[in-house]
Amino acid sequence: MAEIPQGGFTAPKGIPEYVGPEFTAVRDTLVREADRAGYAHLELPVFEDTALYARGVGESTDVVSKEMYTFADRGGRTVTLRPEGTAGVVRSVIEHGMDRGTLPVKLRYQGPFFRYERPQAGRYRQLQQVGIEAIGVDDPALDAEVLAVADAGFRALGLTGYRLEITSLGDATTRPAYRAELQRFLEKLDLDEDTRERARINPLRVLDDKRPEVREQLAGAPLMVDHLSDEAAAHHRKVLGYLDDLGVAYTENPWMVRGLDYYTKTTFEFVHPGLGSQSGIGGGGRYDGLMAELGGPALSGVGFGIGVDRTLMACHAEGLEVAPARRVEVFGVPLGEAARDRLVGIVGQLRRGGIRADLAYGGRGLKGAMKAADRSGARYALVLGERDLDGGVVQLKDLSDGSQTEVPLDGAVAAVDRALGS
Ligand code: HAM
User: Fold this and answer.
1) Residue 325 pLDDT > 80, yes or no?
2) Quick check: CB of 283 below 6 Å from ligand 1?
3) Least C-beta-crowded within 10 Å: which of 84, 104, 205, 324?
4) Is residue 88 within 6 Å of ligand 1 at its C-beta?
């Protein structure tokens, strides 16, 4: 039999767990903004054929080459825990022919994603995202909508300290020429062998090098935004214009490099400076070649993935209260068994009436039970002693100021209702 490890079982390294209402409050707020813009929920598989991510996300990316949780299932198929959502959404759209209906296909998803990264604050091996994808229409207004939905989600949470960085990665007409020019530039620099290799495979990624000695040399590097096709440049200008119209603030960052290979034209990141080195709270962009790359029709797409873990951290960094600390509104405090028996029914009635209620279980004394009531965040306690029970009454105690009112046991639910409503 498998043994209990020394020190007991622990969750696998790099996996945060959330207790209480905050995590779901953040996630649901982000989802609500996507709903408001007409994105339909898609429940994606948690694992897919490994080749989907290798083709979709790109073999040379860190995500595919170093971070995938890949394993053979019992049938010998190679599968991978989803490292991101876009490839799966596009696969699903192709597989089910959703693109044969009205375009764009607008879908949203939420849940855990898996990347074997080095864990640190804000960087996890199981990370949580809310994402949206709009597939099948190459319209700059749609890029702006995607950005506005993310922005509205952050704002609905009360966040103010983030910024949106945006650029254009151009399209297939000018990207190869730009890439070659960047490669020629990089070849002349004094770089170590690993970086030279990266420059050969994916030169754009070298632009993201954080080392000061490399940064210094990159100062005059050619940038994609200066090499856009007329069409991509016009698209970019239109997107920025719509963002102005929608009141979404942005900063242009022509140095932006994303960790996934599918981006074309609009590419963006939401950055929160209060989070240290893992400052990206969301990111995304347009991916006009992905659908064809995955064997579907040559349709465009645009979307985002927002990191729920990091968005919650950003809320904490800004001192926001994202969910009420109140676990329940009313807490039953029975003194003795007969009182407990009676309060079980009353708590049930309160819950049926839509009032969040809990009870001190386990025959605790008055002191212990009142402590539990305080910790629950309840506004009121229903304290029921033996003498109350005999008299057919219960004490309704306001936990904010300690004041107490005697109410009839039969009318306890109505009394709580009235008290909460006032
Ligand atoms: P991504 O930038 O790789 O994009 O991830 C999106 C967000 O997920 C990041 O901005 C970050 O907040 C969060 N995130 C990523 N990795 C981690 C991690 N290890 N720990 C905690 N949070 C993390 C995508 O995944 C694309 N699929 C987004 C997209 C949708 N592009 C187009 N459509």
Assistant:
1) no
2) yes
3) 324
4) no
Distance, CA of 113 to CA of 374 (rounded, Å):
37
Q: Is 165 in the pocket of ligand 1 (CB under 6 A)?
A: no
- Is the pLDDT assigned to residue 323 strictly greater than 90? no
- Cα separation, 92 vs 170, in Å, equals 26
Over residues 223-243, the mean pLDDT reads 97
Closest residue by Cα to atom 9, ligand 1, is: 282
Bond prior to 104 in cis (omega within 30° of 0): yes
The more confidently predicted of residues 363 and 7 is 7
Query: pLDDT digit string (tens) for 343-399?
Result: 999 999 999 999 999 999 998 899 999 999 999 999 999 999 999 999 999 999 999
Q: How far is the centre of ligand 1, averaged over its atoms, from the C-alpha of 74 (Å)?
A: 30
* pTM score: 0.94
Beta strand pairing call for 78-81 and 47-49: antiparallel
Task: Find out whether the beta carbon of 301 lies less than 6 Å from any atom of ligand 1.
Answer: no
The C-alpha torsion from 176 through 178 and 179 to 180, rounded to 10°, is: 90
**Which tokens is 137 given?**
């229409």
Beta strands in 261-356 (DSSP E): 264-271, 280-286, 301-307, 330-334
Q: What is the mean pLDDT of residues 43-49?
A: 98
Token reading at 117 = 């990264």
- Say what the pLDDT of residue 221 is: 95
CA of 283 to the centre of ligand 1 (A): 6
Number of Cβ within 10 Å of residue 32's Cβ equals 13
Burial class of residue 318 in the structure, from the number of CB atoms within 10 Å of its CB (0-12 exposed, 13-18 middle, 19+ buried): middle
pLDDT at 324 over 90: no
pLDDT for the residue 254: 94
Digit-coded pLDDT (tens) for 177-197: 999 999 999 999 999 999 999
Is the shortest distance between the CB of 117 and ligand 1 below 6 Å?
A: yes
pLDDT for the residue numbered 422: 60
Report the separation in Å between the CA atom of 224 and the middle of ligand 1, taken as the mean of its atom positions: 22
Domains of the chain from N-terminus onward: 22-170+250-317 (3.30.930.10), 330-421 (3.40.50.800)
Please say whether the beta carbons of 313 and 275 come within 8 A: yes
Pairing outcome for strands 251-252 and 70-72 = unpaired
